[in-house]
Amino acid sequence: MVTPEEEVALIEDYVSDSVDHHGFPAGKLSTGGWRSAWYIIGVEVGERFAYFGIASNLITYLTGPLGQSTATAAVNVNTWSGTASMLPVLGAFIADAYLGRYHTIVVASLIYILGLGLLTLSAFLILIRISEQRNDTVKSFFWVNILFFCSLYMVAIGQGGHKPCVQAFGADQFDSGDSKERISRGSFFNWWFMTLSAGITLSFLVVVYVQDNVSWALGFGIPCLFMVMALALFLLGRKTYRYPRGNHKEKKNAFARIGRVFVAAYKNRKLNLSDSGLSQGLLEDGSSQKRKGWLEFLAKALLSGEGGAEPCSIKDVEDAMALVRLIPIWITSVISTIPYAQYSTFFTKQGVTVDRKILPGLEIPPASFQSFIGVSILISVPTYERVFLPLARYITKKPFGITMLQRIGAGMVLSSFNMVVAALVEMKRLETAKEYGLVDRPDATIPMSIWWFIPQYLLLGMIDVFSLVGTQEFFYDQVPTELRSIGLALSLSAMGLSSFLSGMLITVIDWVTGKDGGESWFNTNLNRAHVDYFYWLLAAFTAVGFLAFLFFSRLYVYRRVDQV
């Protein structure tokens, strides 16, 4: 016979909402925690190495072997990266509603590997065509270009299933009901980002060099090999993982029950909420004034509808409210991340025009300077964890130091400031080109060191630590448990939509400024372009987005721990 004390011990030894690989309750000592998390972090390092091995130098490939103009290539890069960042919403839905995170990661990884393999094949065929034509560009063999773009978007599809599920699955290894593991989960997002930045930095240094100096086919083949290694490592840790409890039918109900709240609220929109006391506990707590108004209509789902329709539960309404409250934060995040789309396009093209020697006789590819983003992250994360957070905890007397929204807001301020820095550096570059009479010599090297661009790359790393990591933790933490993959996908989709908006802005501005014989802001000859004007515009957009974020963040009500 089991004593009450032994029952308590048994409960404490297991995670209530997770199972092990056999389907039994997940033991705290035998599964999950940092041991499992490091397997998953290793997988993400390999995947990020592969992804940025393609993304970081893509504009050089498009303007080089494929012969596209700078504006067209920038739009294509933004469209692809935007698609890659939006597809996680679909991947997260499939994971949360049907396959589960583990199986979605496996399937997405196989698609990823296939796409990278075909991308390598297309690059090899294009190089053969260049050799046959003895020309620097490829304007024929339409089917080879089709293969290239199809394989490129296959990579985006694979990344769409892989990205939200791996991070959510990693965070699942920490029990939100355990105070110590909950704090560890917050650290997980920081160390997750720092370690994957090491993979990204290695990709910038190794893969970009191979692509620019050895072979594009080999430069695409190396990421494919790393993705194969990442999948093997993920499968290796299978027996140590905690798997979220619940079958697929229950997961589909998460979407159905929350969707039912909106339907019931709409049907009951003419009913008077004040006539019923059912919603009193929902709307009249310490933050009642914040909840009333633009969310009050959802509480009407608690009322019995016409014909005696069954009302929704308070939990369902709370979950629906949680999703709705995220919308303004998500929109302002989209606006504030538009500048982030520039580092892999215009930052790289600007670097081509200046002196890239870092040591006598040693010249590095311009895309490799993106490695300073990773260097900045490698410095910023430990500084944030070991210096900033303890100081913030001492000042605020809060266990997490600062709130997630405060962290995101700090990143927005840095983002706007970074665009100001980028605009000033570009003005310096244009002035130097004019001073040395190089305005109409786009192939000449401007006597300006590429080290001038270092501050904007370092600031991007700091922006990541505050805004990007904060956004990911916020959206994971503030959605219902069953929809955490969707939560992370929302944070990624904000960056995806910002890439689309960046591409749209480039297209419109290029058309407006270039019509009637005018000089486009994005002239192929960057010495006659005005990318600095574009940066000033983005700085203004980001500042406006931050002001809107301040307004909505003051109205935001965090979900209680017992609801998450």
Automatic annotation (TrEMBL):
Cellular component, GO, one term: plant-type vacuole membrane
Keywords of the record: Membrane, Phosphoprotein, Transmembrane, Transmembrane helix, Transport
Stored InterPro entries: MFS_trans_sf, NRT1/PTR, POT_fam, PTR2_symporter_CS
Topology term for the membrane: Multi-pass membrane protein
Coiled coil: none
Pfam family, one: PTR2
Chief location bin: membrane
Molecular function as annotated in GO: dipeptide transmembrane transporter activity; low-affinity nitrate transmembrane transporter activity; tripeptide transmembrane transporter activity
Spans through the membrane: 80-99, 106-128, 140-157, 189-210, 216-236, 323-344, 405-425, 457-476, 488-513, 533-557
Listed Gene3D superfamilies: MFS general substrate transporter like domains
Protein family according to the UniProt entry: Belongs to the major facilitator superfamily. Proton-dependent oligopeptide transporter (POT/PTR) (TC 2.A.17) family.
Protein name per UniProt: Major facilitator superfamily (MFS) profile domain-containing protein
